Amino acid sequence: MQVFPAPEGFELWPDVRRGQVTLPFKAFVHRFDAKEFPDPSALLEIYTSLLGQAEEALGSGWSSSPPDGKEKEAPPHNFVLSREWMMVVPRRAAGWKGADTNAAGVLGMLWVSDEEKMLLWMDLGPARVLAQLGVPADRTDTHLLDSVTGVPPRG
């Protein structure tokens, strides 16, 4: 688990409430009631619901069927919790062509260890890499956020 504040002056895409945000991957976000933060049982219920959406998005290529006597596994995903929302992004891969990221990356904050990795990300294209790591968005995605629609990356 990583805990970090959003950089000052940097608006995370789930915080956008007006206009359109285009994502190259499917993401499932639940906004909290502005009056009070959910209690732990409500957070678990929301998280479980978002995981179900992530599992459905992954489709038949991923199975949560547990081996005999084992608990059901959660689908591979990134998870982010803020004071205003909770987000789950289903993941198909940890990396693609040498580029990898974590939950901060799906929020638009890519961290790389050296210039070579930065150049790799720039060459592959961040939107393309994120679509390969997650579940690519399609034109029918309207459930991502009230202000977000999924449009596939070009090229």
Describe the structure.
- With 155 residues, the chain is of the alpha+beta class.
- The chain has one domain (22-150): HIT family, subunit A, CATH 3.30.428.
- The protein has helices spanning 40-58, 103-106, 115-124, 126-133, and strands at 21-23, 28-31, 77-81, 85-90, 95-96, 99-100, 148-150.
Query: From the alpha-carbon coordinates, what is the Rg to the nearest angstrom?
Result: 16 Å
- Helical content band: 25-40%
Regions with pLDDT < 50 over 5+ consecutive residues? 140-155
Please identify, by name, the CATH architecture.
2-Layer Sandwich
Derived structural class = alpha+beta
- State the strand order across the main sheet: 2-4-3
- How much of the sequence lies in strands comes to 15-25%
For the record, the count of structural domains works out to 1
Give the mean pLDDT.
81
SSE string, helices as H and strands as E: EEHEEEEHHHE
Tell me about the biggest sheet?
Answer: 3 strands, antiparallel
Instruction: Tell me the number of strands.
Output: 7
**What name goes with the CATH superfamily?**
ATP adenylyltransferase
Shape: globular
Q: Tally the helices: what do you get? A: 4
How many angstroms does the end-to-end distance come to? 34 Å
CATH class: Alpha Beta
Q: Could you please say which CATH topology applies here?
A: HIT family, subunit A
